[in-house]
Amino acid sequence: MSSPDTSAPTRRELNKTATRAAIVDAAFHQLQTHGYESLTAESVAEAANVSRRTFFNYFASIEAALNEPTKRLLENAVAVLDELDTDIDLLSAAVTVVKSLVDPKLLEPMAELCLHINTHSQMARVQLEAWENCTDSLTELIIARAPQGTELAASVFAHCIVGAGKAAFTTWARELEENPDPTDGLRIDMLRTTLADAIAQLRDGFPSLQQRAAHLRKA
Amino acid sequence: MSSPDTSAPTRRELNKTATRAAIVDAAFHQLQTHGYESLTAESVAEAANVSRRTFFNYFASIEAALNEPTKRLLENAVAVLDELDTDIDLLSAAVTVVKSLVDPKLLEPMAELCLHINTHSQMARVQLEAWENCTDSLTELIIARAPQGTELAASVFAHCIVGAGKAAFTTWARELEENPDPTDGLRIDMLRTTLADAIAQLRDGFPSLQQRAAHLRKA
DNA sequence: TGCAAACTTGCATGCCGTGCAATTTTCTAG
DNA sequence: CTAGAAAATTGCACGGCATGCAAGTTTGCA
């Protein structure tokens, strides 16, 4: 829909993206080496060779910096979905997106984050916001393609798709936590599988859970 | 499942809940009269006749205080669902919950909040956290009833149900914003209807959006 | 009635997030 | 290549947040 500036590697832009990346890297490095509690705008800025004030010119908070990869990944997903032709249904499109989506450069930090999120809800909030923005974008995308006073349906649908993604990430992260063996490559394969499974749950009407619950009436 | 202290109106408990309520009321009153920007731990505490320090003994932030009703309402919903017999399927149960659920005392502030959330993302975050906690509880509830290595399915399902609820609230709030006429009673009826519709979308496999998108291939 | 436990309060501290003005870096035109 | 414009970085200051701690004050219980 929008052509994202195919060529503009002016010096200024390069410096800005470099600085931005440096801050994010510094934040993650410190997170891994010294833990979440140690994170300070001051310390991260210093590690990124920037002043504290400049840090805040780029990010409104430490959490925002840590969630940059997540934000990018989710925005990217919606963008890819937006590019796809309108003549395939959304769930199929979602599958396509998932397959193409997963950039290790963004997933690594995302995984790292998930390990800390359970213990520090502060961090979780900004990430929740990223998922929420994703849902909003998706809702608009759906409404734009089927605009007939079906706003509620569109919103529910969007929530389900994004919810499936979130569920997949959550489950994936939990499995990783219990079983931190696998190599990076395998991790990503696991995630892809989990994401595909989650979307399949949506496509199949609804999980076997329903029937099971019904059948399960006390013997 | 858990018996929530049927009788314990000791003086201390009463005082604490009174103080807690006073803080929440003070926060909402100031929100309506002077706007979000004016909210300060200091000012809210003063309005509730408590010291600033005591405010922080009850809530970790202004946002947490403002989200108390939301939190209560969602936790209440899950609790009601938990009480229901296992031999009805979850979507039917959800409908039941929705019908019984909606306590005006909690909904009023929730509606008020929704009007401010769009303009102040700070506030949205804590509310997102409340929804997320709701999803987690629901996931555990589902897993407990159908425990067979279907954690992912359970999580997806929970996300969908809660997502439908969130979608309903969002849509409802948006409609209210465009059209702030109705009386309080009507508002709640609208919400009930919207919630029921949202859940119906889930039950009906999936919204007509899918077929529509497929049929809609460029003529 | 008196003591222990629970609750409140003030104080102090470190960090956050932002407006502002000065400084440095990058771009552009001549 | 250079001078000035535009953009980015920096330091400073300020108000507010959130929490530990060490008093005070209220409530419960024997």
Automatic annotation (TrEMBL), chains A, B:
Is Transcription among the key words of this record?
Answer: yes
**Pfam families reported in the protein's UniProt record:** TetR_N
Q: Which residues form the HTH tetR-type domain?
A: 17-77
Q: Does the keyword Transcription regulation apply?
A: yes
Q: Name the Gene3D superfamilies on file.
A: Homeodomain-like, Tetracycline Repressor, domain 2
User: Which UniProt keywords are listed?
Assistant: DNA-binding, Transcription, Transcription regulation
DNA-binding residues (ranges): 40-59
Among InterPro entries, the record links this protein to: Homeodomain-like_sf, HTH-type_TetR-like_transc_reg, HTH_TetR
Its recorded name reads TetR/AcrR family transcriptional regulator
